[in-house]
Amino acid sequence: MDEEIADRTEVVVAGHLCLDIIQEIRSGDLIQPGKLLQVGPPTMGELLSLIAKSLLAMEPGIVAIKCGTDGLYVRTGPKEQLSFIAPNLRDDWANREIIMPCLQAEVKGTTGAGDTTIAGFLAAITKGCRLIHAMKAACGTGAFCVEAEDATSNIPGWGTLTNRLASGWKVVATDPLNEPGQGWYWTSWDPKRTNEPQQWLVGPDDSKKGSSL
To answer: What is the model's pTM?
Structure first.
């Protein structure tokens, strides 16, 4: 990303491969040799964190990485970079690192799933949602999308989306990182137990880790 563009950007959205940055990470350009790569290639959690740190250094407020069937990764900057978030919500949004898994859906097509997920996230920002609620709205919009063969015919209105989320819409029972530990943790449940309520993964650099989310 051009740094002049980044200076005027509030939310950076990246595809789940982020190939250019990953190549830099693997070549050691973004980290000191011997610090991480001496213990092997970066894990998925480490890659997401490194990519987000690199993008946040350009001073957008939010980095969102759609991770395909693994859900949505979001990392945010400090309050000073979140002027577009309502003042009473900036503490909730600042310095966060979270992965929201995909929500359960009867998949008929995947065209537009990533774009509609991000559209749901941006819509939630304009509605003044807390971060967790915005990420649920994002993944919910993506789930509605894949329940139709085309990209747009099943996109819901805001009321329909929030009603389905409030009904206890469950996440897909998989571990997006597929690598236990690394400082990530589920908020309160075992992801293999499909009868549990929807939850999410909290990253090692999340400012509210261990507190009320």
So the answer is: 0.80
